[in-house]
């Protein structure tokens, strides 16, 4: 049996570090700046902050409450918490499946960040032409070549396996305690570097000057989608992590801290990226998607003094952010295997990660040599990305809100937010209102908008 003794995070700081480690990922570092660019600079930022505060935090509280009250995996939590919960376990099941599918391709992307760190170290990244064409060629070579991305994906899976075998406190918590402070230090260093660039002020002006003419309903929907993705909502992660929270953890304070730190990282990324791209005249198309981090930024580094050092540090930062997210999303399935199938931790880790070697490997190849094999007209990579982001995450999040808002006993949220009446919880009523009405409707709009 897996649950002889209740596993818990050992310290408050460790618990925050682990949860922030999950939230801070590629969503903050490369998706956020691209969204800001498309959504009218600070106008998007303002809308994003509203989405996080108004919807993100309450839904996070719903996941935390369910997770801690359940004290088990994301599927079991539903049936534990409410007599009618059994019929709702499918929501947990959907989250776990989503987490599993996301892990497959997120591992591949994490592999790219590792490869870029490695190629910066060896200098190979800067061996060819230092223009857009040169770095695009390199990207093709690194991402689409097949074997190398395959190898780096396998490295990421192996690393995950080692960390997760260590368990929640000795693996996840310890890792986060080391990597999260490192990540913040690196971010601070890069903010500093960015301020020394020739057109730093112009870049900041672009970032902090709102252009509300660019704000369409679409921008609202993408801000909401971005908020949910960035806070790791709907994937069962926070339900699982909260099951490791001690009884006296203050959930409201934890949710606020995690959300603010996650937003802080996103804002810091804006402060880093916009001065850089404006200073080197690299706006527009180059800011979109993968090109931003894998083409545009290397172009910037190539023009900086000691550029290779910055390059190594930046891709290290990216790798850290991505790795701590993969660990959290893998934990969802591991906990489920432990609690549903009564596997030992070791067995659960192996049962998840052995297939992952194959699946992520295939997914890595689907971007390159195997791109001819299509699922509904898409490569495996794009297919997984699309169904999880556009379908599964929104549906799981709506299900969660309906369950916590309407099906579970009202006392669930109240007891959890107030630690069974020992704390005042002014956020209980507004949160319940949002979880019941506002969040499901707005997420439904995101779902429809995504189609
Ligand atoms: N919050 C993460 C991010 O911003 C999302 C995520 C978490 C994705 C865990 C995958 C795994 O990137």
Question: What attributes characterize this protein structure?
Answer:
mainly alpha; 18 helices; 0% strand; binds phenylalanine
Description:
By secondary structure, the chain is an all-alpha fold. It is built from 18 helices and no strands. The protein is globular and about 65 Å long. Bound molecules: phenylalanine. Residues 22-23, 25-28, 102, 106, 229-230, 232, 325, 328-329 line the site of phenylalanine (PHE).
Percent range for helical residues? over 70%
How many individual β-strands?
A: 0
Secondary-structure element series? HHHHHHHHHHHHHHHHHH
Query: Any idea what the shape is?
Result: globular
* Biggest pleated sheet: none
- Report the structural category: mainly alpha
Mean pLDDT level: 94
Strand content: under 5%
Distance between the termini: 43 Å
Ligands in the structure? phenylalanine
Radius of gyration: 21 Å
Low-confidence stretches: none
Query: What is the helix tally?
Result: 18
Please outline what is shown here.
By secondary structure, the protein is an all-alpha fold.
Task: Record the SSE blueprint.
Elements: H1 12-23, H2 26-38, H3 42-70, H4 76-81, H5 89-122, H6 132-143, H7 147-165, H8 167-195, H9 200-208, H10 217-230, H11 237-242, H12 251-279, H13 289-303, H14 307-341, H15 345-367, H16 380-407, H17 411-417, H18 428-450
The structure holds phenylalanine.
């Amino acid at each position: 049996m897996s649950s002889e003794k209740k596993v818990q995070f050992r310290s408050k700081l460790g618990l925050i570090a682990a949860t922030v480690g999950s939230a801070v990922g590629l969503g903050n570092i490369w998706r956020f700046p691209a969204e800001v660019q498309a959504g009218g600079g600070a106008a998007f930022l303002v809308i994003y902050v509203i989405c996080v505060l108004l919807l993100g935090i309450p839904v996070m509280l719903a996941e935390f409450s369910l997770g801690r009250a359940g004290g088990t995996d994301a599927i079991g939590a539903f049936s534990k918490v409410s007599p009618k919960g059994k019929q709702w376990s499918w929501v947990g099941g959907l989250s776990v499946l989503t987490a599993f599918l996301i892990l497959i391709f997120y591992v591949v992307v994490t592999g790219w960040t590792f490869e870029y760190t490695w190629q910066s170290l060896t200098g190979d990244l800067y061996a060819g032409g230092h223009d857009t064409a040169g770095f695009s060629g390199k990207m093709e070579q690194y991402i689409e070549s097949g074997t190398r991305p395959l190898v780096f994906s396998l490295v990421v899976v192996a690393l995950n396996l080692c960390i997760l075998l260590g368990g929640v406190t000795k693996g996840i918590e310890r890792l986060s305690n080391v990597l999260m402070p490192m990540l913040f230090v690196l971010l601070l260093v890069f903010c500093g570097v960015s301020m020394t660039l020739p057109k730093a002020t112009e870049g900041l002006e672009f970032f902090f000057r709102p252009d509300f003419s660019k704000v369409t309903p679409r921008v609202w929907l993408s801000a909401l989608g971005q908020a949910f993705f960035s806070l790791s909502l709907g994937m069962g992660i926070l339900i699982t992590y909260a099951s490791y929270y001690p009884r006296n953890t203050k959930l409201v304070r934890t949710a606020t801290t995690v959300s603010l730190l996650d937003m802080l990282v996103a804002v810091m990324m804006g402060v880093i990226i916009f001065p850089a791209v404006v200073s080197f005249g690299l706006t527009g198309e180059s800011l979109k998607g993968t090109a931003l981090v894998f083409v545009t930024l290397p172009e910037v580094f190539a023009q900086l003094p000691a550029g290779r050092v910055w390059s190594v540090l930046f891709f290290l930062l990216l790798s850290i952010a991505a790795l701590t997210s993969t660990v959290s999303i893998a934990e969802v399935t591991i906990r489920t295997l432990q609690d549903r199938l009564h596997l030992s931790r070791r067995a659960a880790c192996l049962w998840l990660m052995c297939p992952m070697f194959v699946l992520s490997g295939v997914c890595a190849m689907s971007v390159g040599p195997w791109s001819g094999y299509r699922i509904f007209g898409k490569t495996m990579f794009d297919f997984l990305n699309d169904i999880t982001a556009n379908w599964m995450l929104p549906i799981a999040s709506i299900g969660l809100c309906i369950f916590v808002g309407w099906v579970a006993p009202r006392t669930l949220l109240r007891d959890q937010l107030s630690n069974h009446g020992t704390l005042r919880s002014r956020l209980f009523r507004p949160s319940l209102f949002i979880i019941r009405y506002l969040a499901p409707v707005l997420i439904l709009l995101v779902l429809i908008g995504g189609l």
